[in-house]
Amino acid sequence: MAIAEGPSAGPLTATGTDPRNVDGQAICITVFSTVKGWGRLWLPLVFLYARLVPSAHGTLARLSFIHFARWTLVRRLPEQRLRHPHLFFESNFNGGWEEYIDAFSHILTRGMTLFWGSSYGFPTPLPTGRFKDYIKRHEIVASHFYSAYPDATTTIVLSALELDAKLRDFRARTEGMDPDGFARAWDEFVTDVQGCL
Amino acid sequence: MNTDPDRSGQAGALTVLTPIKPGAVDDLRGYLEGLRATGSPLARLSRTHFGRWVIVTDFASDGEREPDRLASPYLLFTACFDGTLDSYLDELCEELSAEAPAIWGRCTGVPQPPVGAALKAYLRAHHATTGFFVAAYPEAEVGQVRHALAQREAVIAFARSAQGMDPAQLRAAFLDQLGG
């Protein structure tokens, strides 16, 4: 299934997506696909596995540009009889659209097949060209997208949170310390948090 | 181990799909696209990390027999938020009372006026449960993220300015600027 594009699709930005999908550094992607009959049983099992097995998160965590993502199986709609279930996917990420899909395809090759393998028309994740075409045909442009911290990438958010914890520890450790000891501790601290700055 | 499909750590996922009234889709799209000019109303929801409104106009076939065709367009609203869904919906219905009539007021079956407890019940009734929700920083609330980002900038600025300070100056400046 592909969703018909809204009538006001705009030009692509440097990020490779419509400007309405962008808020600062943040980009949103919204995709619906039609699920085959067997996916009605298969996808809930995939979701359950993903939720209960922590290692399933590990691979997603390697995609260091995703803030939040979700998959939802839509079986019914109010005032509409559906013959097929539909898989709704959304992501909030940073970077470029092309790079995002490339990374998804190369790093999450198996996971992508688990999630989308039961969708009609789904090509294999690799090579990425056909997969990008598939996503483009199934993507819907947002009418409004909001990020609470639009200038921050996922990596910067994670770095800032790590730095926050280390700074709290540094404050506690150096409380009441003499100036020379503090200066040494500061130098060590700066070295330690270099990757967060 | 996460057993609630709408949660990842303390973060929640909200997904709402509501049918749009016949003939209302163009006005709704225009309204939603115009929100950015005056600043997103979602900024008033201090627990919202990310949010979006998307108009789903129709499904197109992809090889399936008897493809689904939407009888009317649907409005999709999603949010990644902090805390419980119940309290978030309370906040949403309170803070978006000015915008809700122009947004969900254009949807079928919405109570009139579309505000307060009646709107909350409507949104709950049209809520779709998530299958799998993943967050890069599931335990960090919006306020914590913003604080950490601002503090990171302050640490970078301080580290630059501290170069060349003697130990006494360094300690005094740290306590003054980053003392917590």
Features:
heterodimer, A: 197 residues, alpha+beta, Alpha-Beta Plaits, 2 domains, 4-stranded antiparallel β-sheet, 7 helices, 44% helix, elongated, disordered N terminus, B: 180 residues, 38% helix, 19% strand
Protein described:
The complex is a heterodimer of chains A (197) and B (180). Chain A is α+β, with helices and mostly antiparallel strands and 197 residues long. Chain A contains seven helices and six strands; from the N terminus they run βββααββαααβαα. Chain A has helices spanning 39-52, 55-61, 97-107, 109-116, 128-138, 154-174, 179-192; strands at residues 2-3, 22-23, 26-34, 66-74, 86-94, 144-147. In chain A, strands 2-3-5-4 form a four-stranded antiparallel β-sheet, with helices on one face. The longest helix of chain A has 21 residues, at 154-174. Chain B folds into two domains: 7-125, Alpha-Beta Plaits (2-Layer Sandwich); 142-178. Chain B has six helices and six strands; from the N terminus they run ββαβββαααβαα. Chain B has a four-stranded antiparallel β-sheet with strand order 1-2-5-3, with helices on one face. At the A-B interface, strand 1, strand 3, helix 1, helix 2 and strand 4 of A face strand 2, helix 1, strand 3, strand 4 and strand 5 of B.
